Amino acid sequence: MTIMDKEISIAEGNDYGLIAQHERDTGPCSVWHHMKAVSTTYKEIIQRGNSIIPVIITYLENEDSGISVIHLLEEIVPIKDHPYQPERLGDTGMAAWDVKEAREKWIQWYNSNKQQSNG
User: Fold this and answer.
1) pLDDT digits (tens, 9 = 90+) for 20-29
2) Which of 7, 19, 57, 60 is most deeply packed, by most CB within 10 A?
3) Is the pTM of this model over 0.90?
């Protein structure tokens, strides 16, 4: 079952629901500029900044989410801290993503940083 099949409501006002709505809005799209344009919750999620990162990570752990949720983390976290870099495809400006690997690396990054801050 994917998020597209689930009924997670943003009417409840929860952050998890905002992320679910973002993924429903963006669907299978892989072009980040298009994702931002079609998402009804993108701005609200990004404005929450670091406080929403644990919810995004939980979402990645629980859902078979695509690249649009990973891109939320990339917008919030400084690029120097990104744990995953997609393979660049020559001079095309395009990249090959391994979404499963990206999810795993972001979850590991979060858990590592959480342990360091609790240290």
Assistant:
1) 999 999 887 7
2) 19
3) no
Residue indicated by tokens 């660049």: 88
Q: Can you read off the two tokens belonging to residue 79?
A: 């690029």
| Separation of CA 9 from chain center | 18
The secondary structure of the chain, three-state, reads: CCHHHCCCCHHHCCHHHHHHHHHHHHCCCCCHHHHHHHCCCHHHHHHCHHHHHHHHHHHHHHCCCCHHHHHHHHHHCCHHHCCCCCEECCCCCCEECCHHHHHHHHHHHHHHHHHHHHC
A 10 A CB-CB count for 66 gives: 21
Contact assessment for residue 72 and residue 19, using Cβ atoms and an 8 Å cutoff: yes
Of 64, 61, 53, which is closest to residue 113 (Cα–Cα)? Answer: 53
- Give phi and psi for 96, each to the nearest 5: -100, 120
> Interior CA angle at 53 toward 101 and 69, to 5°?
50
What's the mean pLDDT in 62-72? 89
